[in-house]
Amino acid sequence: MEQRLQYLAELIGAEFKGDGDCLINRVEALDSATSGAISFLTGSKYRSELQNTAASAVILKKEDSESCSVNCLIVDNPYLGYAKIAQVLYPDPDRRGVAPSAVVAESAVIDDSCYVGPNAVIGEKTVLESGVEIGAGCVVGDNVEIAKDSKIHANATIYDRSILGERVILYSGAVIGSDGFGLAPDGDKWIKIPQIGRVILGNDVEVGANTTIDRGAIEDTVIFDGVKLDNQIQIGHNVRIGENTAIAGCVGIAGSTEIGKNCTIGGATVINGHLKVADNVHITGRSMVTKSVREAGVYSSGTPLQTNRDWHKSAIRFKQLDEMAKRLKKAEKEIEIGSKN
């Protein structure tokens, strides 16, 4: 969608330098941009590219503006400015109506502004509010509530009684409300425990492709407003994730753990069940969380990349740590005794 540069500057509250009537119709990288495109600069190490860029405009910080040879929008956070402009230049298509091949229960309530794609299934007494889009091949169970302007991409599954807030986005393959991993041991067998809770997603929640959120065993699994979940995440039953927390791909969170607000969790992190993670906690990738995190801050575990040879040496030394600690303690005690004599 083509927009005047002056409009885009006003949209992001930018100080503007250049031709306000310049037309922008796309976003491109700074070093490969062409006429009609807008780009952005977030780091001074790329400042040299400003002199040679063919972009029609660049979003940047004030200290970089003197090096810019084209129109520029000056803001404190160029990356945020880029995100807002990209939303305007690349709007979602406006789709309405129910595809002939969709299967919709008679008791379902679907607003006239909704879209239901080919081969989608909508269950009994399910409610789709205004502007909801259900992609091709999706399955939405019975008694589901999906609030306005939510978008469910193709082949996502929403189990019975799940509740989705406004502007929720589910990407393909996401599963909302599947059974939690609830089993009771009976000798050498397992007895399945019915999972009777729900999944509740707040407003502006995003759930990545092939991410699964299990419904609660008795109470609900709750993902609060503004949470962003990457692809291939597993969230166990009764988990609660606080507002505006972002979780990267391949994270596993075991049942009944509570994650605070404004946290970030790096990829491939594993968090044990029945733990509490405070607000504003940031966990780096591949961490293993086995105890509750009570204070805000940055936390890490795991082994950083080494050459295979060095890693083998470290692994051997790790196995020797207990024996080395005992020998050190013995040596300290001998030194202490010797000093007294």
In a nutshell, what does this entry contain?
With 341 residues, this protein is α/β, with parallel strands linked by helices.
- Helix percentage range: 10-25%
Low-pLDDT regions: none
Q: What percent of residues are in strands?
A: 25-35%
**Chain-averaged pLDDT:** 95
Query: Can you tell me the number of structural domains?
Result: 3
Largest sheet: 11 strands, parallel
CATH architecture of the largest domain: 3 Solenoid
* Structural class computed from helices and strand pairing: alpha/beta
What is the straight-line distance between the termini?
A: 86 Å
Q: In CATH, what is the homologous superfamily of the largest domain? A: Hexapeptide repeat proteins
Strand order of the largest sheet: 8-11-14-17-20-25-28-31-34-37-39
What global shape is seen? flat
CATH topology of the largest domain: UDP N-Acetylglucosamine Acyltransferase, domain 1
- The tally of strands reads 39
Q: Quickly count the helices.
A: 3
Radius of gyration: 26 Å
CATH class designation of the largest domain: Mainly Beta
Attribute tags:
single chain; 341 residues; alpha/beta; Udp-n-acetylmuramoylalanyl-d-glutamate--2,6- Diaminopimelate Ligase, Chain: A, domain 1; UDP N-Acetylglucosamine Acyltransferase, domain 1; 3 domains; 11-stranded parallel beta sheet; 10-stranded parallel beta sheet; 3 helices; flat
Topology:
Blueprint: E1 3-4, H1 5-12, E2 15-17, E3 23-24, E4 26-27, E5 37-40, E6 57-60, E7 71-74, H2 78-89, E8 97-98, E9 103-104, E10 109-110, E11 115-116, E12 121-122, E13 127-128, E14 133-134, E15 139-140, E16 145-146, E17 151-152, E18 157-158, E19 163-164, E20 169-170, E21 175-178, E22 183-186, E23 189-192, E24 199-201, E25 206-207, E26 212-214, E27 221-223, E28 228-229, E29 234-235, E30 240-241, E31 246-247, E32 252-253, E33 258-259, E34 264-265, E35 270-271, E36 276-277, E37 281-283, E38 288-289, E39 297-299, H3 308-340
Parallel strand pairs: 4-5, 5-6, 6-7, 8-11, 9-12, 10-13, 11-14, 12-15, 13-16, 14-17, 15-18, 16-19, 17-20, 18-21, 19-24, 20-25, 21-26, 24-27, 25-28, 26-29, 27-30, 28-31, 29-32, 30-33, 31-34, 32-35, 33-36, 34-37, 35-38, 37-39
Antiparallel strand pairs: 1-3, 2-7, 22-23
